[in-house]
Amino acid sequence: MNTKNTVKNRFVTRREAALRQVAGIGAFIEGTLVRVPRKDCRHVAHRLTFKVAGKTKTVYVPLDRVEEVEQWTKEYKRLKRLIKAVTRSSLGELRNHVRSRRAAASAGAGAGPRR
Question: Angle CA(12)–CA(17)–CA(25) in degrees, nearest 5?
């Protein structure tokens, strides 16, 4: 890791804010909670669907755990959004760094003595 003091730009600030939010993520689970109507009565069954090696898997969710599992899936979606935000900010910082180094190199090249 670089030990130099770097100037905080908007990308660093955004990334740090998103990382603070990631620290507040609770329990999560990948998948979608699906309500499946049962044919034999008016009740609804709940299933959690998710992918494993490209294949959709399904797990029964008991009625007393539906709210909890729904919260877990929401936390997972929130985590995915935060990961994308951190990635965008890191890429922006990297591109900004490259631009500023190129600008500094071209400014330094023009300032030198001519032969």
Answer: 135
CB 74 within 8 A of CB 67: no
Q: Show pLDDT as tens, one digit a residue, over the chain (115 residues).
A: 554 555 678 888 888 888 888 888 889 999 999 998 877 777 889 999 999 999 999 999 999 999 999 999 999 999 999 999 999 988 888 888 777 777 777 877 655 555 5
The candidate with the shortest Cα–Cα distance to 26, out of 66, 79, 85, 63, is: 79
- Rounded to two decimals, the pTM is 0.70
How far is it, in rounded angstroms, from Cα 11 to Cα 100? 14
Paired strand residues for 3: none
Q: In sequence order, what DSSP letters do the residues of 6-43 get, joined into one string?
A: PPP-HHHHHHHHHHHHHHT------SEEEEEE-TTSS-
Residues 6+ apart with CB under 8 A from 21: 82
Contact 69, 47 (CB under 8 A): no
